[in-house]
# Entry
Amino acid sequence: MADNSLSITDNRTGKKYEIEITDDTIRAMDLRQIKVNDDDFGMMTYDPAFTNTASCRSDITFIDGGKGILRYRGYPIEQLAEKSNFLEVSYLLIHGELPNKSQYDAWVNDVTHHTLVHERIKKFLDGFRYDAHPMGILVSSIASLSTYYPEAKNLDDEAIRMLQIHRLLGKVPTISALGYRHSLGLPYTYPDNEFSYAGNFLNMMFRMVEPKYDLDPVLERAMDVLFILHADHEQNCSTSSARAVGSSRTDIYSAVSAASAALYGPLHGGANEAVINMLHKIGNKSNISGFIEGVKNGEERLMGFGHRVYKNYDPRAKIIKELAYQVFEVTGKNPYLDIALELEQIALNDEYFVKRKLYPNVDFYSGLIYQSMGFPMEMFTVLFAIGRTAGWAAQWLEMINDPETKIARPRQIYQGAEERDFVGMDQRD
Ligand code: CMC
# Structure
């Protein structure tokens, strides 16, 4: 019996099987040989939320949820947030290494030369109602990009693939800002490539009639760091969606649009918006203990807390909490900060949360920053999406280049009716 194997005895038949273990993992397909008879389909695993199933091999992001560690391509998130910038981090995620000076300059040039969107996109946006949720606008606008760049279907051409990534990184902030301005009925602001990536985004969002947007460097840096912190998070719901949709060999825009649709949900990127709604509902500190009781008896959920992977403080939440104080120096303190701090203190010391290892996640404090910077709540998930676009692109590219990639196609346990004959309507009860 090999050391790196798993011995399985099927007590239904008494048969024994040796399954190879690689990287602390067994291949689900190796279980298919386990059958009770020749007609048996063979054993499968049942893992409805992929809680214990690795769907790919990846070199991009490492998380140790127990220790609260997050690294992109080996670099600790704390160092990247302190020393890098979003475009450099995007390069790192997509190309695998930090760029040298000329690679960096070329990359910035390539991305910023794709910040403009086709004028027709503005007409497309005009079709949305004034109160359309910006995430709905984003999901559809990203999908619409595939109609402007049909060559994106050519997945085998490396240069074409990279061009679409430049376009995505360049255009997603522009589309996001256009969607926001559409909702307010404001004239669209064109990109200004003299600003940094984050600075240009703030310019497109908030510039009014002034000839040049007066960019605050603290807010610019905060925006950039928030993009870095959201840039990737291995096989989360949206990234898995990008990979699953992309595995059918659709173009990157369709795959990233699907990813942003997954991000929209309140259990994923929608949580930052849900946190502010929760703080608003709590209203003041005297209502916190009643709210916590509601959480413990299942009537409420403490949004911005808990994570499928982190069973420790989310390292991004730590950085964001510090960043919040820097932003509040400029914008004034967010009135909900005190409620959030007290909620955190109570939750970190309460047995319900301690026992379940529930800690603040990336969304707990980010909404407070966004709100203080002047973003409406509906835009919060869009901000998450702008940063995560880099990760979706990197993961999509890795999936396309992986020889083990096949179309994603899970199995099911069928538990419906056995075969039966069709009954005409006149004979149905
Ligand atoms: N408030 C109260 N109880 C919670 C919470 C919470 N935020 N999160 C988990 N629990 C409880 C849950 O009820 C369960 O209790 P019990 O064992 O008694 O049934 C236990 O903790 C384990 O939770 P789970 O639901 O099995 O955990 P999960 O891995 O399926 O869910 C999660 C992870 C993030 C969806 C969940 O923690 C949650 O809903 N959090 C609030 C929403 C949120 O902040 N989402 C952002 C996640 S981070 C950014 C991102 O991924 O987009």
